[in-house]
Write a structure and sequence with these properties.
The protein has about 375 residues and is an alpha+beta fold. The protein is about 30% helix and about 20% strand. Strand 7 and strand 8 form a beta hairpin.
Length: about 375
């Protein structure tokens, strides 16, 4: 299974193509749109979300809501393109209207200008933008439906915003309740403090990041491999999370906490009863030796504060080489809820790739039969 994406933030549309989906996977378009809507939600979002109302359009590979086994292509149209046509049209436009040379710290602007030989950072930032993740959410939602057919679920919540943290532990079943909250947090008192922090940051022209926890339930043991470094499940999942804009750190299970403890308080002891192996703890976060071990997979990702600040940061104008204040594109104060949905989605797609590689199968009946035949 493979995903390719294309499109610019203010271009005509965003495009995704998924290769390798088996036939007869039931596609729920309403569910895809639900996750696209969640990606646009959350306290602290900016003006772009008032313009866009993302919906997926399936272009090929699906008939009567079932996959055909051929590549599935889809689009998420940029409604804001109507306002940018004169400066973004591929058929010809006035590129001087939206030229950006006051390169923004924390963005791809400067490095991209140098790498690709451009003189206008617009040619870099339009693709580097997190707007691209709308396609990955749509693809991840399709992958989620593939996993759900096998009894595998992906969920998550926001653990902290700008240092205001929820240290409680939650069951997998509790996590979905976070989607009903303004900051996808499960402790209302902590969430209230985080909202107050965001309000202050907005008044100060500043931004916030945070920490997100993603969990996977129902995945059987043995997915991933210890035989090649590139096939280790933890490496694959961490790579998927780190591919998301603004993610600067990832941990699994205890993560960095494991480095502070003695081995006797880290490794999950193994037991056997009633014909099954099991563990009483899950410090490993569901992955041992690069393979799933049948426990819940627990991932955490650190999102840096959004680098586009309304008050601007010190920088240099690429054209004149003179000091200036960084350009201020329309931006969010906090996009932590969007990041949570995106991380769920890329986790689902990365897992679907791994599952598909192991199980094969040209149609969903074969896939489900092969998964059910595996040892728990």
């Amino acid at each position: 299974m493979k995903l390719s994406t294309a499109g610019e933030s203010h271009g005509k549309t965003l495009i995704g193509i998924i290769e390798g989906l088996p036939s007869n996977l039931q596609i729920n378009i309403g569910e895809i749109n639900y996750y696209l809507s969640l990606r646009q939600s959350g306290y602290g979002r900016g003006g772009r979300q008032k313009i866009e109302s993302d919906k997926v359009e399936i272009l090929s590979g699906v008939r009567n809501c079932k996959t055909l086994g051929s590549p599935v292509s889809f689009a998420v149209v940029n409604a804001d393109y109507a306002n940018w046509r004169d400066s973004m049209a591929p058929e010809g436009c006035d590129t001087t209207q939206k030229t950006l040379t006051k390169v923004r710290p924390g963005h791809a602007d400067l490095t991209g200008l140098i790498k690709y030989g451009h003189t206008d950072a617009r040619n870099v930032l339009e693709r580097a933008s997190a707007r691209e993740t709308a396609v990955r959410v749509a693809a991840g939602s399709i992958a989620r439906q593939y996993l759900n057919a096998l009894g595998v679920e992906v969920s998550g919540y926001v653990k902290s915003v700008c240092g205001i943290a929820d240290e409680k532990q939650y069951s997998f079943e509790q996590l979905e309740g976070a989607k009903k909250q303004p900051l996808f947090m499960l402790d209302e008192k902590v969430q209230k403090k985080a909202i107050e922090k965001i309000d202050k940051l907005k008044a100060d022209g500043d931004t916030a990041g945070g920490i997100i926890e993603i969990r996977v339930k129902g995945l059987k043991s043995g997915f991933g491999s210890c035989m090649q470094y590139s096939t280790k499940l933890d490496a694959i999942l961490c790579g998927a999370l780190m591919s998301v804009q603004a993610i600067k750190g990832v941990e699994i299970g205890l993560g960095f906490e494991a480095a502070k403890r003695e081995g006797s308080r880290v490794h999950d002891e193994i037991y056997y009863e009633n014909g099954k192996f099991f563990r009483k703890t899950n410090n490993a976060g569901g992955i041992e030796g690069g393979m799933s071990n049948g426990e819940e997979i627990i991932l955490r990702a650190a999102m840096k504060p959004i680098p586009t600040l309304m008050k601007g940061l010190n920088t240099v104008d690429y054209a004149t080489k003179q000091p200036c204040t960084a350009a201020s594109e329309r931006s969010d104060v906090a996009a932590i809820c969007a990041a949570e949905i995106i991380l769920e989605s890329v986790t689902a797609f990365a897992l679907a790739e791994v599952v598909s590689q192991r199980l094969g199968g040209d149609n969903m009946r074969e896939v489900i039969e092969r998964y059910n035949a595996l040892q728990d």
